Amino acid sequence: MSVRRRTLLKVIVLGDSGVGKTSLMNQYVHKKFSQQYKATIGADFVTKELQIDDRLVTLQIWDTAGQERFQSLGVAFYRGADCCILVYDVNVLKSFDALDNWHEEFLKQANPPDPKKFPFMLVGNKVDVDGGNSRVVSEKKAKEWCASKGDIPYFETSAKEDYNVDPAFLCIAKAALANE
Ligand code: GTP
Ligand code: MG
């Protein structure tokens, strides 16, 4: 019998209010989606176990509040993060323009030893809306942003239709493991 190592990875999900951070997490962990918007207050985590090669990995996924008045997270919250998922809504330009701030703020708070190597991921959510006709941020533009931040991986998702959600979380988990 092979010896399995268990690893806990702290994943932090950031992005503007309403982009679908909670929905992505609920879809990934509980396979559920709700149309109803309920703002996240502060932060909370869920866990998900997965196997990657010979490793048992527990993802501790921290869902945070996009609304400023509900952000009460201190430096301690970000410390020890193994990776960070930045989420925007492909139909809302403002949520894309805010990415620089979220990225910068994360690095400032988490203060990882090697910021250039820290595993980030960008997720463009809600690609299902209006059959893609209402999107305002192109894949090309998003990928350019990723390239400018040191080639961070990019996934387009729909939490509603469970499109590309599992692959996105698997990719960030692998990147975090590789960075250990
Ligand atoms: P805060 O907690 O305020 O930071 O927001 P959030 O980023 O957690 O957003 P949330 O997951 O609560 O989703 C906001 C709204 O968008 C809800 O009404 C969801 O049902 C909806 N939504 C989330 N993801 C999708 C998606 O992929 N497609 C569609 N059509 N709607 C989505
Ligand atoms: Mg939320």
From TrEMBL:
GO annotation, cellular component aspect: endomembrane system; vacuolar membrane
GO biological process terms held by the UniProt record: protein transport
UniProt keywords, alphabetically: GTP-binding, Lipoprotein, Membrane, Methylation, Nucleotide-binding, Prenylation, Protein transport, Transport
One Pfam family here: Ras
Alphabetized SUPFAM superfamilies for the sequence: P-loop containing nucleoside triphosphate hydrolases
Molecular function terms from GO: GTP binding; GTPase activity
InterPro entries: P-loop_NTPase, Small_GTP-bd, Small_GTPase
Subcellular location: Endomembrane system
Membrane topology: Lipid-anchor
Family matches, as Gene3D superfamilies: P-loop containing nucleotide triphosphate hydrolases
Family, similarity comment: Belongs to the small GTPase superfamily. Rab family.
Protein name according to UniProt: Ras-related protein Rab7
Organism of origin: Genlisea aurea
